[in-house]
Amino acid sequence: MLSKFPRNLLLLIPMLSQFFFNSFNAVGQLAIQLDQWEYKESTDQIWKKCSLPQSIYSILMNEGKILNPYWMDQETKLTWVDDKSWWFRSTFEIDSTWFSFPQAELVLGGLDGYADIFLNQVKILSADNSFREWRIPCKDLLKENGNLLEIRFSSTSLIAETKYRMLPHLLPGGERVMVRKPQFSFGWDFAPKLQACAIRKKIFLEFPGLFEVSSFGVFTKKLENEVATLELDLKTKSILSGDGKIHLTMDKDSFSFDFNYPSGLHQQRFEFDIVNPKLWWPSGSGEPYLYDAKISITNADSLVQPIIRTVKAGIRTIELIQEPDDYGRSFYFKVNGLPIFAKGANYIPADAVELYHPNPDPWIKSLKESHFNMIRIWGGGTYEQDAFYSSCDRHGIMVWQDFMFACAMYPGDPEFLQNVAAETYEQVTRLSSHPCIALWCGNNENNEGWHRWGWQIGMSKKNKDRIWSDYQKLFNNILPELVKLHGNYHSYIESSPLYGRGDPKFKSDGDAHDWGIWHDGLPFEDFEHRVPRFMSEAGFQSFPDLSTLRKYLPEHELKLESEFLLSHQKHPKGQQTIQTYLARDYPKPTDLESFIYLSQLMQAEGMGKAILAHRKSKPYCMGTLYWQLNDCWPGISWSGMDYFGNWKALHHKVSHLFQPILCHLTIEDDLWKIGYTSDLIYEDSLFIQLSLRDFNGNEYFNWKTKLLAGYEQTQTVQSMQMADFLDQYRSIKWVGVLEWEYSGKKEQSIFFPQKCKDLELLKPNFNLTNFKKTSSGYKFLIQSDKFAKAVYFREQNGLRFFPNFIDLAPGESREIQIQTNQSAIGSDQIIVKSLYDYQNQP
């Protein structure tokens, strides 16, 4: 492979590899990790020790220079951090043996901000993109002793402001559009404004060999007649040109390819087939099978040790189907040839300061257990770390991946576009080997904003034409072309949504962001007739749990009128909107605890109407991704899980509504329809029963049936005219109990006939029995003697209850799991409330 290179050096490289066996970085290359760091504000004289990776906020907090940005209103007092320039440095030594390698590169990933990089007093880089990795050749600058690396961050906020003022015309979105940095760090309606710099990845000095594998993946070209046509995608970097041989194994299957390569960077694809492949399926549709894919690259005369790389490879096809039909234009995902209903939510960065979840796997596993099969990584945040996508691969969670552009129009000058093209190449190349990637989307709401948010008002035609031309270059040229060249046959769309709620096509064509509920004040019931082809955003706010509030507010500030509490509400009309909707349908809260409970219940019940309507409308509607899954700080937001991972009522609700077979009752005046929606890819036996009872549990009506539920369908099982029944028992305040059983699972939905504020609930008495220790805590059974609405187990002192906010029918037992690290819990630690308590407050 490298026979033209001096033989003595070729023989030396394997020996060096053995000598430095413990100096490999994450991709297996010989490297030195730089782990001794100091920092200072640029004008200071004194350097202080720090550890990396982390943000400057965390460093200052650990030093006692600032309070936690999430504490009370501290975020508003930290603009001085954003306005400063922060410098980092590391000194390091190099053993003389390392200089025998042909190359040395400084690898700088995760530089979140704008920084000048100096090595031994020589400037080697101006980093201007938080989403890129920088690899800088530096062998000629290195010495054995006293090497000095400096990273000098300038204020991103000042750079953005300066660049924005220099524009020939101002762009919608403001100063943030000028810098390639997570856009939400400039402040959002769910996030604090924390713009200062961070170093988010470890920094290495790498010593590449004469030939390196930059990346490889196994891509699925097509599935046909039990044969998978696959491609080995290989990107290499070499000093010289030559010939080689690739040996690939996929579990027990083996393949070999001869190849030649030029010097420099090179990409090649090699096609091969696997008969009767094991396929990767989304959660709920089958096993997300992953092959152990391993390549070994050798040359003809075996002078160099084989280069070995491994990845987990999934064989699957995922296509976004957008075709004209009788209603408008479809929008659904076809996986391995089968239409799949997408169930999930929109994901934002896990932390406003540090961005990433420290251990995403247990968290993503919990999504699988909640019957998710997709998440959308929103374009105002960041591309996630490798471990995140690997976890999605393992657990069958498809990823709708936005590029990092949101709610704005962006520059179109050559420098900006070249920077974005490099970012896109790196991210598409990095992520394409992950079978979980289902879609690349150019941006979030930019198209809708341009056409329907009034951005063009007051602009000259010349400026409008220039801005729209720049949009076309970026989102309909550069991004899709790079996805086509380097992706795993991924689908691409330019923007989400194509039609906003102000256009009547939002229900019939493509995906939709329906903010008529919340922004426009429409009632939750409107979700039931505003059903789009695919809902990629819709949401409503609630407060986080009281145990979460206590972590960032002192006890005396735990009151609704606290300005420090409301500083964590970033939507300008958020509090007013929650109160307006509460007044329509729910009892009036009397204190913070009741406000939290009722806001969470309202969010769950309201969004539950939307999700149920979407699933009932299958196959017209083929997906529902609510806004939003998680929080980036302990704030008041649309999340289903709060910042600390506590499930709000919403997540408990969607865990129920996302199950594989969901039965439903539709009431249209006197006509009652009982039906089911199945997302299984096989038929299954199904038992359904509907009973009508009074609030004490006395039964007045019962209907039941057994059937074979079809796969991937929605079906009405029974239509009943109920006028005679309702007339006969008009004095009865009835409750509907819909029960169903499939695959050994028993499920139940309880239908209360009136709004929560109008329900005449009876006082329930709860009986807790059968306490048992489990591997994760405890479990017990709960019973009620009356119908109980939204039974809530207060989460405190490390106790978390699953499920929570449950409805109970009289005399029926429900098993509750407690997650806790406590070795023992007392009966006084389990505090049970229900809607009755909040209807009858003093």
Assign the structural class, choosing from mainly alpha, mainly beta, alpha/beta, alpha+beta, or little secondary structure: alpha+beta
Strand content: 25-35%
Radius of gyration: 29 Å
Unreliable residue runs = 1-28
Q: Portion of residues in helices? A: 10-25%
Describe the global form: globular
Write out the strand line-up for the largest beta sheet, numbering strands in chain order.
3-2-5-11-8-9
| Oligomeric state of this protein | single chain
Q: What value does the average pLDDT take? A: 93
Please provide a written account of the structure.
The N terminus is likely disordered. The protein is 20% helix and 33% strand. By secondary structure, it is α+β, with helices and mostly antiparallel strands.
Provide the descriptors you would attach to this structure in a database record.
16 helices, 842 residues, six-stranded parallel β-sheet, alpha+beta
Concise account of the structure shown:
By secondary structure, the protein is an alpha+beta fold. The chain contains 16 helices and 47 strands.
Topology:
Blueprint: H1 7-19, E1 31-34, E2 37-41, E3 48-50, E4 54-55, H2 56-62, H3 79-83, E5 86-92, E6 105-109, E7 111-112, E8 114-119, E9 122-127, E10 133-137, E11 147-154, H4 156-165, E12 186-188, E13 191-193, E14 198-199, E15 203-206, E16 211-224, E17 227-238, E18 242-250, E19 253-261, E20 264-275, E21 291-298, E22 307-313, E23 318-321, E24 332-335, E25 338-340, E26 342-347, H5 360-369, E27 374-377, H6 386-395, E28 398-402, H7 414-431, E29 437-441, H8 446-452, H9 461-486, E30 491-493, E31 511-513, E32 534-537, H10 546-549, H11 563-566, H12 574-585, H13 592-616, E33 623-626, H14 649-657, E34 661-668, E35 671-678, E36 684-694, E37 699-709, E38 713-721, H15 723-728, E39 734-742, E40 745-751, E41 766-774, E42 777-784, E43 788-793, E44 800-802, E45 806-808, E46 814-819, E47 832-833, H16 835-839
Parallel strand pairs: 26-27, 26-33, 27-28, 28-29, 29-30, 31-32
Antiparallel strand pairs: 1-15, 2-3, 2-5, 4-14, 5-11, 6-10, 6-15, 7-14, 8-9, 8-11, 12-13, 16-17, 17-20, 18-19, 18-21, 21-22, 23-24, 24-25, 34-35, 35-38, 36-37, 36-39, 39-40, 41-42, 42-46, 43-45, 43-47, 44-46
Helix pairs in contact: 5-6, 7-9, 13-14
